[in-house]
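Q: Start with the shorter request: fold the first protein.
A: Done. Sequence, then structure:
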Amino acid sequence: MVLNLFTAFHVVLSLLGIGSGFVLLYGWVTARSFERWTTFFLTTTVATTVTGFMFPFHKFLPSYAVGILSLFVLAIALAARYMFHLAGGWRRTYVVTATIALYLNFFVLIAQLFQKVPLLKTWAPTQSAPAFLIAQTAALILFVCAGVLAAIKFPAAPLQRT
C-alpha cells in the first residue's frame, strides 16, 4: 500500500516535471524566462530523480544510470541558473543541460509506458523491439532539434521575464 502511494507520488512528480519542462522549452525558444516555471521544473525534476532511487532494488538497474546522469546535468543547470545567473555562456549551458534533464525524464516515461501499457507492451515486449527503438529515437531527434533551437534563440534576444 505504501509502495503504491509512493509510486503514484513519483509518477505525478515526473509528469509535472515533464509538463513544466515543455513550458520552459517554449519559453526558451521565444526568449522568455518563466521564473516560476523554472523553479517548478527544477524542483520537480530533481525530486522525481531522487525519489527514483528510493524504490526497493536488488541490483543496479539502467534507470539508476539515467538517474545519476540526470542529477549530474541538473547540478550544472542549477549552478548555471542560480550561481552564475545565466551570465555569458552559462545561459546556453543552462538551456542545454535543462533540456537534457527533460529528455532523460521523457526517456524514462517512454520506457515506463512500454512496460506498463498493455498495447505498447505487445508492440514492444523488450527494449530492443523496433517499436520501442523508433519511439526513443524519435524522442531523441525531437529533443535535440528543440534543444538546439532553444540554445540558439534563448540567448539571441533580450530576456523577457514573465
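Q: Next, the second protein, separately.
A: Sequence, then structure:
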Amino acid sequence: MQKRDRLQTKRRRNAYRLGLGAETLAALALQITGWRILKRRYKTSAGEIDLIAKRGKTVAFVEVKARKTRDAALDAVTYRSQQRIGRAARIFIAEHPKAGFFTLRFDVVIVRPWRWPERLADAFQPPFD
C-alpha cells in the first residue's frame, strides 16, 4: 500500500470516528431534552439519516454536523445532502406507515468543540426530485 493510500485511509478512519462521536453526543443531547431515538445511522438505498428521533407527535430526521464553526456546519448541509435525506426519509415512512400520522420535520444538530450541541429545529425542507 502506498504512503498516500495509508494517509487517506487514516483520514477516513478519523473522520468516521469524529462523526460517530458527534452523533453519540447529539443523541445524548436529544434524549436529555425528551426525545426518544428511534434509529441511528439509518441506511437505505437512497442514503443515510444520522438520527431519527420522536417526541410527542413529532418525528425528526436529524442531520448531525461536527464542524469548528456554526457557519461551516450549515454550509455542509448542501442541497444534495438535503435531497438524500429527503429520499431516505420517504423510505422510512414507507417502511413505517404510522410515521405519516406524525408531524415530520428535518433538524440539524451542530456539534462544535467544547460546546453543547446546538439543535436547529425544522432547519430545512428537502427538495422534491
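Q: Describe the second briefly.
A: The mean pLDDT is 92. The chain has three helices and five strands.
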